Amino acid sequence: MWEKMNEMKDVILSNHRTKARGSLCPRDLDALESWYPVLDITNENMLNKVGMSETTEIGKDLVKMYPKVFKNMSVPATVMYAYSSQNPAKQTAQVFLDGMRLAGSTARVINLGEFSALSVDQSCPKYKDFLTSPENLKESRMYKAQMEIKEMLKEVSHRLGYSYDLNFDVVFQMYKLCSFETGAYLGKISPWCAVFEKRHFKIFQNDEDINSYYTMGFGSTYAPRLGCPAIKNLFQILGEITKHTPDDPQVTVLFAHSNTLRFVLTALGIAWDSTILTARNVDVREDRMWNSSLMVPFSANLQVVLHKCQNYKVTFILNNYKVLYSTCNSTKCDWDVLRDEYEDIIDPLSCNFDFCSHQLNSIGHNTHVHFFVTLLVMFKIIW
Questions:
Q1: For residue range 158-189, what is the model confidence (pLDDT) as tens digits?
Q2: Where in the cell is it found (predicted)?
């Protein structure tokens, strides 16, 4: 991968300086000439500087949001956390907890260890087979075949001084370098970003939305099944809390890859649109609910909060935005209403991993799991 990008860098420089082809400005050429690979782009899950900074702030913000819970010296909260086997889940957990401590949290912390159920897409052979199936790739291939994509490839190739059009995968790697390196270095833009016009980024974002919609979202029959067991576990625990309120506030934080969060959002019906997202309408549906850049940015997180009011109520908070649930027509739903709505969906007979070729280790009920963090965080607050 790196060897190929180094070769491309040399070709691009030669195109401009020797063959007088291409339209990158001298400053961008100098930046590209100075570029050398220092990050492993194949390891997208690596926690970069932006991710570390944002995760620390999320930990701090949680304490600031609920000071009566996390700064209560007389009745300290209990924070239980678990993580997937995928990098950088464990590292993210430590950074998050450091943020809580920096904000003055007095909570007890319990490490529940690694849960394979948080890496469901890595542990389900049938799902892995589905990812490369014609059924899954159909819409993505249709989108890449559109004239807009061909024009973008022609523009980028001409700008870099090539006498032929580069293919989508090659240009996509440049886009990945642009976004990955810019995210890894605070305040510094990758020289590969100069390859693109602003409108080109929308094309790649549309492509990501199409891909994720049909692999991890509402266009996939697998997605809600992979996210369902986590939801079942959540509802079981919230149900127990409403029956037997513990003496101390309890917070459970699960750290997993963004794919897991997408599965959970799909199982919950969050970001659902009545109109199916397709290669033909993705360009015109700018207000679509399924928007990866909004749903799963760096340190994406989902909070599930149980409030003890006159009746128990539940609030879902996605990346600091309260989710409006259509069933309740409110951001704060009655627990009884939500429980009844999901009763059939989380039936143990259908809500499990049996459709995979082997059984996954589920999260035991005795762990009191309430929350996920790519950050998916689920926790209970008694008001």
A1: 999 999 999 999 999 999 999 888 877 767 89
A2: Membrane
Torsions phi, psi of 284, nearest 5?
-95, -10
Q: Is the pTM of this model over 0.90?
A: no
Q: For 109, phi and psi rounded to 5 degrees?
A: -120, 130
SS (H, E, C) 182-210: HHHCCCCCCHHHHHCCHHHHHHHHHHHHH
Helices (H), the chain: 2-17, 26-33, 49-65, 67-70, 89-102, 125-131, 134-144, 147-159, 168-184, 198-216, 222-243, 258-268, 292-295, 335-342
Answer for the pair 260, 121: CB distance below 8 angstroms, yes or no: yes
Q: How many residues does the chain have?
A: 383
**Amino acid at position 74, single letter:** S
DSSP sequence for 336-355: HHHHHHHTTTT-TTTSSSTT
For residue 4, with 0-12 CB atoms within 10 Å meaning exposed, 13-18 middle and 19 or more buried, which class applies? Answer: exposed
Cα 261–chain centre separation = 6
